[in-house]
């Protein structure tokens, strides 16, 4: 009888496995993960290194989701945004650190109430604070005077004295005179673009990217300038647990530099490959290392040759990933999209969503996505990615969206 029962169980198991509609609900922690019979992955690389490939299925780490774990599992964002709506001022992304029981945001702000079309002259780095990570943030001081743009702050807490390390482009030394321009006019909210900002003059200025970063022992400064031995457009730093610094730079191609201290010596260790075909142009590199030790880089993706009608494009983000920091992979799956749902139930489609950065929890898991956004959906005859700097449309602000962790 035992032999017959065993044979019967084996036959049932084989029939069950062979069923084309077989689905197995796997309980892992508090998550239910549905696994299909058809294999979707063979290695963790097929899961964009945002999860594990188990029995042909990608089991995603939070906050990632999708068949290849390539999409962020986003939650509704809060109005009115982090910085740039209240007060009504143009800002263009940045990131924050948590220190002394509040969040400190370092954000690119346009001086003189100008739009982003004046960023070549008017961009400065503003320090603002909030008790709520999503904001709104209240301006405390100007960390770096024009010209300074695309800031990224890193807080180093190795001893009793904290060190705030601020990477950016531009010298940040008040060497550029901001251009005068008018006020923004009507107040806009992220979900209401019925009133356009007043038209402002566009200023064209050729600048050289600054090869400096700044440090301070207090979030309000004073800030000390330090030179890098190489040019670094849109620098994205990451401090590893062992104290090694990584710095991702966009020099046409993307290069990763590393050093054991901020004083160097710096060594170039990798050049990232070109992004996949039909994914436009990738810019705004953002580098991070996940809790498994895998390397990642987010990007803003755009197509400025989009044929016009509405002149919109589905491209907005890209993702590189690597097991060792030397050999890199890409995917056509976009980590995030143009549309954002808010806590009041409304959804807004932004013409562009750039400067991607994360805020990480103490466990090394990203909890919030930060972007510079433009609230207009389109601005024909120009492609949507250009709305951010088109006079009359170039009021932009900084948005924080929570992730499902």
Question: Would you kindly provide a written description of the structure presented here, covering whatever features stand out?
Answer:
The protein has about 400 residues and is mostly beta strands. A 4-stranded antiparallel beta sheet has the order 7-8-9-10. The radius of gyration is 23 Å and the shape is globular.
Total E-strand runs: 27
Strand portion? 35-45%
Q: What is the structural class?
A: mainly beta
- In sequence order, what are the helices and strands, one letter per element? HEEEEEEEEHEEEEEEEEEEEEEEEEEEE
Helix content: under 10%
SSE layout:
Blueprint (H helix, E strand, L loop, with lengths): L1 H17 L4 E6 L2 E6 L14 E4 L2 E4 L3 E2 L5 E2 L18 E9 L2 E9 L8 H4 E8 L7 E7 L4 E8 L6 E7 L42 E5 L7 E4 L8 E4 L5 E7 L1 E7 L7 E5 L9 E9 L5 E8 L14 E6 L5 E3 L8 E3 L5 E3 L2 E9 L5 E9 L22 E6 L3
Antiparallel strand pairs: 1-2, 3-4, 5-6, 7-8, 8-9, 9-10, 11-12, 12-13, 13-14, 15-16, 16-17, 17-18, 19-20, 20-21, 21-22, 23-24, 25-26, 26-27
Briefly say what this structure is.
With 405 residues, this protein is mostly beta strands. The chain has 2 helices and 27 strands.
Descriptive terms for the model:
disordered N terminus; globular; mainly beta; single chain; 405 residues; 2 helices; 4-stranded antiparallel sheet; 5% helix; 40% strand
């Amino acid at each position: 009888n035992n032999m017959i029962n065993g044979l019967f169980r084996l036959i049932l198991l084989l029939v069950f496995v062979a069923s084309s509609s077989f689905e197995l609900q796997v309980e892992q922690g508090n998550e239910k993960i549905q696994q299909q019979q058809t294999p979707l992955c063979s290695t963790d690389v097929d899961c964009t290194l945002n999860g594990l490939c188990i029995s042909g299925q990608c089991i995603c780490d939070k906050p990632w989701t999708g068949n290849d774990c390539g999409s962020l599992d986003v939650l509704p964002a809060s109005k009115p945004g982090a910085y740039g709506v209240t007060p009504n001022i143009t800002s263009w992304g940045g990131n924050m650190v948590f220190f002394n029981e509040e969040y400190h945001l370092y954000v690119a702000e346009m001086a003189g109430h100008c739009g982003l079309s004046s960023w070549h002259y008017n961009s400065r780095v503003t320090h603002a604070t909030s008790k709520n990570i999503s904001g709104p943030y209240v301006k405390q001081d100007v960390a770096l005077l024009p010209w300074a743009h695309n800031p990224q702050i890193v807080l180093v807490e190795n001893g009793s004295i904290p060190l705030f390390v601020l990477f950016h482009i531009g010298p940040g030394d008040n060497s550029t005179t901001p251009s005068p321009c008018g006020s923004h006019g009507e107040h806009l909210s992220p979900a209401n673009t019925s009133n356009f900002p007043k038209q402002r003059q566009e200023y064209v200025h050729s600048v050289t990217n600054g090869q400096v970063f700044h440090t301070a022992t207090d979030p309000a400064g004073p800030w000390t300038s330090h030179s890098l031995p190489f040019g670094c457009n849109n620098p994205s730093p990451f401090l590893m647990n062992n104290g090694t610094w990584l710095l991702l730079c966009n020099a046409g191609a993307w290069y990763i530099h590393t050093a054991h201290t901020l004083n160097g010596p710096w060594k170039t260790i990798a050049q990232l490959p070109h992004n996949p075909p039909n994914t436009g142009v990738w810019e705004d590199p953002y580098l991070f290392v996940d809790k498994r030790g895998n390397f990642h880089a987010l990007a803003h993706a755009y197509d400025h040759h989009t044929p016009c009608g509405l002149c919109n494009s589905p491209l907005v983000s890209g993702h590189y990933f690597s097991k060792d920091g030397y050999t890199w992979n890409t995917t056509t799956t976009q980590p995030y999209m143009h549309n954002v749902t808010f806590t009041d139930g409304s959804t807004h489609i932004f013409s562009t969503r750039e400067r991607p950065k994360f805020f990480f929890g103490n466990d090394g898991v990203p909890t919030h996505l930060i972007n510079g956004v433009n609230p207009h959906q389109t601005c024909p005859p120009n492609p949507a990615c250009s709305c951010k700097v088109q006079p009359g449309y170039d009021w932009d602000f900084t948005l924080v969206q929570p992730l499902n962790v």
